[in-house]
Amino acid sequence: MSDPTIGSMVTTPPAEDPAVAGGTAPPDAGLPAGKQRQGKPRGLLGDAWLDLRRRPMFWIPAVLILIFVVMAAVPQLFTHTDPTQGLLERSRVAPSGSAWFGYDVQGQDVYARVIYGARASIVVAVLSTIGTVLIGGAIGILAGFRGGWVDAVLSRIADIFFGLPFVLGAIVILFTFNKPGSSNSTFKIMMLVIVSLVVLTWPVSMRIMRSSVLATKEADYIVAARALGASSARIVFKHLLPNCLAPLLVYSTILIGSFIGAEATLSFLGVGLHSPVVSWGIMISESQNYIRVSPHLLLFPATFLVIAVLSFVMLGEAVREALDPKLR
Amino acid sequence: MSDILVSEQSASDASGRPTGRLLEVDDLRVEFRTRDGVAKVINGVTYHVDAGETLAVLGESGSGKSVTAQTIMGILDTPPGYVTGGQVRFHGRDMLAMSSEQRRRIRGEGIAMIFQDALSALNPVFTVGFQIGEQFRIRRGMSRADAKKRTIEMLDLVQIPNAKGRVNNYPHQFSGGMRQRVMIAMSLALDPEVLIADEPTTALDVTVQAQIMDLLAELQRERRMGLILITHDLGVVADVADRIAVMYAGRIVEEANVHELYAKPAHPYTLGLLDSIPRIDEKGQQLRTIKGLPPSLLNIPPGCPFNPRCPMAQPICREKVPPLLQLGPTRASACHFAEELVNNG
User: Does B98 touch chain A if contact means CB atoms closer than 8 Å?
Assistant: First the structure.
């Protein structure tokens, strides 16, 4: 079987050398009979799921993400301590048998804060990523598929947003719509953080989607679908999209990680979430003055953050491989 | 060949009234507007195909044979390609004047196309069963189960062994020849009246080529399809074609039935092509070629486009474009000296 190694993120099949494609393979060369898939036809996702089920590289991050999601939804399952109750007499007490992760500057329990912190961090990161991918992806498909002036206009708009420096842009947005001290509504601040992350990062998704649409729409199978009378909507959603999705999917898993970090950055600058809301970003920024004397203040939230980011990246990689039939 | 009909060849009436033919291309003109200028890719191509007939369109790379096919199918890339004149009539109705929705309905059911490289013409993320069955489900409104049954029938029809087991395989799990069979099955799914095969065997090795051509010829006979076979392979043509249209620089330079063309070519270009087929009795000698290169389509020389390479070129060839003249009931040539060629051989 000629199975080209696909190292690149773009999944457009490389045009195989005709000499190789013609091949000297006997007409009925294929998989050994035992490996052939029998039974009713499955869709793309069905086959991907069959493939994923067998991979430890899928199960490990999936289980970890599940734990984080449960942690975000019902933190009471993991701890009975109130994360915001501080006793100054136990400020920066090191980890011990009674308090596994020790206490922070305010004498609050670090373990409880890490558990409760998952909610803000994960909600902000996941929602921002979904927003970015949906908006950027939709605009990217439109620009790539229509081409011409539609592409020109949309690409220039994307360039404008791309030109805005991220931190500066986020500060301006958050300052304009939520002056420090004006509102302490957690929901409102969270939404604003999400909106500013989406507004400032969608052009990257748009460009990824646009370039893979541009590469794929010239492919013979798209022309063939058109030649056999498929409608434009069918070509875009059924034939183009599955072939263009992988790069964006991989990017989005990395994005979740960097959004957790971005949320921390904004919290650190005082324009994002702030106490009494608990998030890993807030904990990391609070620990920065005590890194040398009390490293546990940084260590535990940072560990959770790294594991969460890593899980999303690994999951994304496993899903990408499962969605690409050539890597099966 | 004493009485030679000298009249402008017309596959249809000048008025464009239906003549009962299945597919007619009439004086088609296509140009590519590029940064370097306007390339006149198709300069008045006229051919037709009837039910149950195989027309081979022969020509070297860049002669416009594929662009003609793309224009018929409506998959010409615009920009840079623009149709500047002529008609493509299907059952007498001009497709170029139809709405895009009307044209879309003809694709697949009326006219279908087979591509050169079946691997890139099949969607890599779907099983072949899905891709063939999709047409039954969407265009015929069949249920998934019925569509699958029909798909397996189609795969059986194109002689894929163990069709039932392979229907859920992905394109990359098939060998080159099998992939081309899948492609044929896909094109024939909606039972088109005209099939355009754009170099269907170029990417295959010789033994598989023969199998695929046999299969195509057989299916064409069974279903009484009109087959337009686009190729640059004279060997392939001789076996299956009824008529041949030879293209050069966006024009038809000669049209004839197979026997006439091979026996007595009526255009120096055809003569050169036939002469350059390697022959077993000339083993060890240098292969004959047609000297020179095809003209740049941005700058086609005045007169006959073939004149710079033609061994028989006369002054008139550099001045006047030879029209495609009827030489007999079934043949036509665009050469000022066609009669001499045929008579003197």
Answer: no
